[in-house]
User: Which sequence fits this backbone?
């Protein structure tokens, strides 16, 4: 199966990386990102021909909040879009069924869109990276035989309706539980994104004061039980950050976070 490169966007800094793609016969299952005002790191998770889950090493710097985009069965990447300048400021994934949220910041003077040619899919990336993703291009390959016809049939009707129902259901569930304010509080902590905040809340860590008193080993156990997608998260400094935030010591918290990278001490 031939792999081809298409498109490129971003700056010229960082170190070049190439052939960052899922193996032949494997299906892209998940994309993990670390983001703040830029997209800092990228990692691909895949399912091989035997149904085993594999993962590629992360590319980029290990700082920022963990974000995860999971592909459904029968779903594949058709393109990416976002904004770039010296770095990849923001990134959105487009599939045969939907578009993801936009990950990263709001900067970047150049809008970009890279679409896979007809009857191909995005199977990986190439570019340049160091502390951030400096430059990004896409690697495409032919769709498996019969994939285009089957997926286009599914896309015509249910694919558009399904997300609307899920969003409506989520909004109804969110209102009575009133979790939104607590999620905002926990995401003050460097290294905790919305998904991790929700996982912590479901484990009984509902506010900053509780997080400040939680032992690091307990946090690691919670993350481990949440699944491999969160294996980049390091909670070592979370209680220390939470203790400062709980007593509204914002200047001290800012000084501490300036010394951190993805919640870790440099």
Assistant:
């Amino acid at each position: 199966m031939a792999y081809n490169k298409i498109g490129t966007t971003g700056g010229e800094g960082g170190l070049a990386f190439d052939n960052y793609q899922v193996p032949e016969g494997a299906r892209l299952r998940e994309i993990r990102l670390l983001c703040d005002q830029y997209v800092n790191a990228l990692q691909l998770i895949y399912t091989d021909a035997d149904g085993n889950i594999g993962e590629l090493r992360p590319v980029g710097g290990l700082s920022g909040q963990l974000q995860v985009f999971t592909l459904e069965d029968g779903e594949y990447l058709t393109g990416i879009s976002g904004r770039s300048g010296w770095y990849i400021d923001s990134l959105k994934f487009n599939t045969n069924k939907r578009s993801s949220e936009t990950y990263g910041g709001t900067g970047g003077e150049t809008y970009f869109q890279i679409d896979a040619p007809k009857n191909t899919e995005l199977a990986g990336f190439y570019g340049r990276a160091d502390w951030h993703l400096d430059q990004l291009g896409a690697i495409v390959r032919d769709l498996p035989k019969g994939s285009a016809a089957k997926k286009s049939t599914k896309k015509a009707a249910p694919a558009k309706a399904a997300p609307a129902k899920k969003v409506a259901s989520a909004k109804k569930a969110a209102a009575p539980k009133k979790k939104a304010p607590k999620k905002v509080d926990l995401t003050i902590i460097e290294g905790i994104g919305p998904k991790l905040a929700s996982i912590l809340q479901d484990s009984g860590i509902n506010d900053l004061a509780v997080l400040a008193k939680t032992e690091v080993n307990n946090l690691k156990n919670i993350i481990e039980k949440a699944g491999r997608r969160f294996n980049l998260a390091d909670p070592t400094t979370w209680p220390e950050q939470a203790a400062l935030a709980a007593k509204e010591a914002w200047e001290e918290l800012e000084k501490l976070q300036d010394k951190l990278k993805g919640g870790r001490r440099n």
